[in-house]
Amino acid sequence: MKTLVCARLIVAGLLLLAIGGLSLAQEKPLTVASEEVSTGVVSAALNATPQPPPPKQIDKGDTAWMLVSSALVLMMTAPGLALFYGGLVRKKNILGVMMQCIALMGVMSVVWVLWGYSLAFDKNIGESGLGRICGGLGLVMLKGVGASNVVNNKTIPDLLHMVYQMMFFIITPGLICGAFAERMKFSAMLLFSVLWGTFVYCQVAHWVWAADGWLASGEHLALDFAGGTVVHLISGASALLCAIMLGKRLGFRQEQMPPHNLTYTFIGATMLWVGWFGFNAGSALEANGQAVYAFVSTHLAAATGTLAWAGLEWLKRGKPSILGACSGAVAGLVCVTPAAGFVTPESGMILGVIAGAACYFACTTLKSKFGYDDSLDAFGVHGVGGFAGAILTGVFANSMVSGNDDYKGMLQDGGNLHQVINQLVGAGAALALTLVGSFILLKVIDAVVGLRVTQEDEIQGLDLSQHGEEGYIFY
């Protein structure tokens, strides 16, 4: 019996071995065939001609975000800047400030369409290398600029890029108006803004933001995410020069000239804070992670700037003021502008503290020491804050935020001191062009139409003398 069972087990084992061998025999050709197919695919891939990446398509989400950002930046000029500056002047000049803002919204928009956008962003200027220095005229009157083609390998129409940059072109000369408030002719302001925008702003914007600008790439790369140099530094420098060349207001340091309505200033400052999200986060030109970093860093810089300025007031004067808090917020926003899309939120907080302290010093100690009449502290906030931000961007830039290994600051990976040097070179070049260009323009305009209103007009106030209206009429 046992013998029979053993025999059956042996037979069963032999059958299993036979079946297994048959299966292996059938699988082997399939394996060889699959290897041959794989080898053919790899060979074809290696021998294929590399294909360029497909062109980017317009993205509805990015387009929607940039439309909103454009509106937010326009809101910064009016009512934001109009209320912020309007509350700081005497009541006889509030309409003069507001008229400057709305007039710039009109005239600078037209100039941007006619030739400004082309001078700033056109690169079709021949093979001479001149395109590294200035833009061409290939986009005059928006030639070839439409809503169906993307810009700079982004996912928004180039027409949208044009209108977004237009809002920067509008507000930048508006910032300068704070330095010569209450004493410059309206006609001179308009003429200066148009010429300054053409010969100063457009050139610096091309250097920094155009694809072939000499500060936009290569060994001289100067980082400016949203306009620390292009907007704030050059407007602040021009503001100081304007204040000096026009001279002081009648009665400066001889009579009190307090702000007539700090409620307006507070409303304007908070509207600037909100609008700045479009200014900075919108400069990513996409609704992406870099825009998120820029948004958060912008908010935190404004927050710490507010605390720094108000805190210093509290320590030195015993009381914090609403004007100090508003000024600190704007100072923080100015300083983080060139860095917003390149730095971490923690670095944004540091920038705000530095800006609040530096601009507080500039608007109090520095201004008092040298005695210039920068009426609304355009230089103290935008010039000083813009310069500090431009340099500190080279210190705190982090390639993790931007996703670009070329955008490293001095504190990342052992230190990139070369970036700080580039920031200094870029800021220095922008300052040189701005000061020389502004000086020439102011001299020419003074000779043609005159810069300053008469003493009688200044005493009466610009509302009546320049516009024939009063801001406040009570019966």
Describe this structure in words.
68% of the residues lie in helices and 0% in strands. The chain is mainly alpha-helical and 475 residues long. The protein has one domain: Ammonium transporter fold (Orthogonal Bundle), CATH 1.10.3430. Helix 5 packs antiparallel against helix 13, helix 6 (228-246) runs antiparallel to helix 11 and helix 7 packs parallel to helix 9 (322-336). The model is unreliable at 1-46 (pLDDT under 50).
Secondary-structure blueprint of this entry?
Elements: H1 2-47, H2 60-88, H3 94-121, H4 158-176, H5 186-209, H6 228-246, H7 262-280, H8 289-317, H9 322-336, H10 345-370, H11 378-396, H12 399-402, H13 417-448, H14 455-460, H15 462-467
In short:
By secondary structure, the chain is mostly helical.
Main sheet characteristics: none
Number of domains: 1
Q: What is the CATH superfamily?
A: Ammonium transporter AmtB like domains
Q: Structural class of the helices, strands and pairings?
A: mainly alpha
Over all CA atoms, what is the radius of gyration? 31 Å
Report the average pLDDT across residues.
Answer: 90
- Under CATH at level 1, the class stands as Mainly Alpha
Low-confidence stretches: 1-46
Topology order in helix (H) and strand (E) letters:
HHHHHHHHHHHHHHH
CATH architecture: Orthogonal Bundle
Here the CATH topology equals: Ammonium transporter fold
Helix content: 55-70%
End-to-end C-alpha gap: 129 Å
Percentage of residues in strands: under 5%
Please give the count of helices: 15
Number of strands: 0
